[in-house]
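Ticket #4471: structure output looks truncated?

Reporter: J.K.
Steps to reproduce: submitted the chain below (209 residues) through the standard prediction queue, then opened the result file.
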Amino acid sequence: MKVSPNDISKIDKTEYDMLLYIVQQGNPVSAYQAKNALGMNQPTARNICIRLEREGFLAVYKKEKKGRKKLMYGPKWQGLLFLCGSNSKMHKEMDTILDGWFTNPKFREILEEDYGPVVTKNPEKAKTLVKKLVRHIIRSMEEFDNMTDDEYEVWRLVAGQTLYIAKHPTEAENVREFYQHVKFYKDNTDQAIATNEKNAEFFIGSVSN
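Returned output as attached by the reporter:
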């Protein structure tokens, strides 16, 4: 399953194709193996693997020392997120992909660093959590991308202001003054606070049940 060049940039497409190839093998792959399958030269394949590792999508699963040192790569769960975010059809392959990689001790070890002991105690539950969380994150980001310009500007201001005040605490006095005397500033702040409170109540209620 490849992605049309019209869907993602050329650079992203080479990363996507490399990551997809490795993920679909179900076991660790070297850059040499991948370059033959994808029709790349060795330096290009190696550089893409290094870039994907740096971006947190791949990990080195093992190092073989037959002749030259050979790095064997496999996915991190963030790599699955990248694939599904680039191509929604990948969701349909997640069961097969996870069934294959869950047999690999290194994949489970890496996954447990982020997901905790559920990976070892209840692998089937962990697989379900990975699938659900990948879908949840992608849908959440889509909602963010679909915000109106007005909604975006409100959240951009609130987030930026929070970061700014954290770095410059004396600015809080100015914020209080703006809130007391500038109508649109007060309206936007009240709207953001109300939305945050509503979301917090919903979230707390969801995780408490």
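Triage note (M.O.): checked the attachment and the full token line is present. The longest strand covers residues 58-64.
Status: closed, working as intended.
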